[in-house]
């Protein structure tokens, strides 16, 4: 639904088109002609879209082949890292292209992926973590539903809504629905629709403590975007290239609230 690159932000609308704002120096915001998109992902300088027919489109920097996805088919999910793109196919295969080509031939029953700065991370159907970089320790990671990594830190979201991390104090987090790791810390979306942050002592994260009714988040090292329950897109942080110019975006129209039926028997005759 929403994805953030180094200095750009992209979002998929309910009609399958894609909005983009921010730096377009590498063509990463050239999504105006895209259609039938079901999900998006963003790398540092490229953008990836998954079409409804299982094919993949990409635009932006292709120095390392991160946009070489034209022959991918039967895809059910796409992911992007700084200079990499990965996907899970409907028959469980892992595809990846870009600066680092990871050996995932032994990866099976993978539920979802994420791409850190130096590693491809995965969660198996049984909640166990997968990672291509031995420098990311996962000793306490189990029963996961999501696993994300940045430069030298990672975090895992457990099925009970708690979070584990190898670099941040996340012991008080609970009721979490989604996480996004950056090189400066962690953003966590909870069941109440609010977003909590955990930053390293040397770093600063955008203050989003006033956000509410959030249903999805995505963060880069310097900015964060969130989708509200009524389809608006909030963004905060660095916007030197316009990456936070999302004020006019509306991704979907909420379903109308059902009108309650009148109480009592509508056929009853009032007493005189």
From TrEMBL:
Q: Name one Pfam family in it.
A: RCC1_2
Entry's PROSITE patterns? RCC1_2
Name of the featured protein: Chromosome condensation regulator
User: What organism is this sequence from?
Assistant: bioreactor metagenome
The opening ranks of the lineage are: unclassified sequences, metagenomes, ecological metagenomes
């Amino acid at each position: 639904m929403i994805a953030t690159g180094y200095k750009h932000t992209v979002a998929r609308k309910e009609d399958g088109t894609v909005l983009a704002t921010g730096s377009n120096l590498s063509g990463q915001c050239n999504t105006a002609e895209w259609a039938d998109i079901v999900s998006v992902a963003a790398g540092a300088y490229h953008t990836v879209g998954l079409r409804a027919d299982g094919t993949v489109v990409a635009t932006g920097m292709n120095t390392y082949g991160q946009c070489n996805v034209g022959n991918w088919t039967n895809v059910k999910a796409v992911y992007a890292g700084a200079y990499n793109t990965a996907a899970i196919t409907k028959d469980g295969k892992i595809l990846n292209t870009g600066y680092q080509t990871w050996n995932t031939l032994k990866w099976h029953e993978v539920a979802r992926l994420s791409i850190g700065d130096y590693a491809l991370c995965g969660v198996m159907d049984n909640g166990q973590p997968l990672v291509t970089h031995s420098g990311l320790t996962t000793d306490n990671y189990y029963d996961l539903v999501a696993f994300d990594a940045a430069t030298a830190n990672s975090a895992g979201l457990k099925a009970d809504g708690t979070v584990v991390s190898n670099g941040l104090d996340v012991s008080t987090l609970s009721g979490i629905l989604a996480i996004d790791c950056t090189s400066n810390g962690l953003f966590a979306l909870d069941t109440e629709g609010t977003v909590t942050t955990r930053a390293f002592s040397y770093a600063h994260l955008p203050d989003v403590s006033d956000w509410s009714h959030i249903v999805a988040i995505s963060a880069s090292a310097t900015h964060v975007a969130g989708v509200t329950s009524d389809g608006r897109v909030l963004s905060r942080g660095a916007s030197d290239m316009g990456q936070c110019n999302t004020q006019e975006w509306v991704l979907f129209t909420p379903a109308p609230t059902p009108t309650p039926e009148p109480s009592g028997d509508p056929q009853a005759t009032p007493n005189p």
